[in-house]
Amino acid sequence: MRKRIDNDRLDVGTNGLRGVHASVACDVLVGASVSERPRRIAMARVIARTAIAAIGVALSLGACETAPVADSDRPPAQVGGRFSIGGFDLVKPSASYGYTGQLSPSEQALRERAKNFDRTVWQGALIGAVVGTAIGAVAGGDAEDAVGGAIAGAAVGALAGMYVASKQKQYASREDQLESMVGDVRTSNRETEALIADARAVLAEDQRRLAQLQARYRQGKATEAELTQERGRTWSNRKVAEKAAVGARDKYRVLESARRDFERQSPGTATGILARELDSYRESIDALDRVAASMAKA
């Protein structure tokens, strides 16, 4: 057996891999009878050679000169000082993620329209400025969920109740109250669709710009620092869209809860049109989520 193993060691032409055959052969021969040893050694050779081939491919690929590949699901290191290692934040990153250049008109339009999805903006539009104090009282001073910055359930219910009450105060008839609620949902849906169009325009810009920069990097005409800047730019665009999507979904949750409240208080009133508009609004938010997830993956 020792002679067979020694011969297998000589089959490896690279000093760094000289022990691979021997190691595999020893493992395979453990517990083998004399008659089984030739078959097991042959099997060991196949396993070892496959492993060596895989190592060789990995080494050859590693030697290729390509643009550095960033994990698109993790933020880039901030220029001028890392704020994350291995995807874990060390310090809260700036909204620009280290990007110090000028924003394009499309990027500026995206940020301007995203303001409509800020929580204080849409809550005030639906209910009024008093909303913040009321939510804090109902939710025990913590109106935000620990995950993703979404509004906590208690605050959603409080907002929905206040929203329905405001419609009842504005309009005497149930039909007028319902019509006003339907109008609010339609407006929210149009704003979301417009934001999706802005986000798609920015996504196309990001993909084109990053592809051009990577090509220049491979030609030695751009630096890794420039690539890091561009990754920060695309990531900051993604975060704008993601934050807006969170705000849109919070607003949907409030409006959906308000629909249920209205139905309980208005038995016999047909609310099918409101439910359909809410379904359309939810689909638009899902589309916004998908676009946001595609950003920074150019």
Keywords summarizing the entry:
mainly alpha, 1% strand, 298 residues
Strand content: under 5%
| Residue windows where pLDDT falls under 50 for at least 5 positions | 1-26, 57-71, 78-91, 139-148
Provide the succession of SSEs. Answer: HHHEEHHHHHHH
Secondary structure: number of strands: 2
Helix content: 55-70%
Describe this structure in words.
The protein is mainly α and 298 residues long. Helices cover 67% and strands 1% of the residues. A two-stranded antiparallel sheet has the order 1-2. Helix 1 packs antiparallel against helix 2 and helix 4 runs antiparallel to helix 8. The longest helix has 45 residues. The N terminus is likely disordered.
How would you summarize this macromolecular structure in one to three sentences?
The chain is mostly helical.
Topology:
Blueprint (H helix, E strand, L loop, with lengths): L1 H9 L9 H10 L7 H26 L21 E2 L2 E2 L15 H10 L4 H8 L4 H8 L14 H18 L3 H45 L5 H42 L6 H23 L4
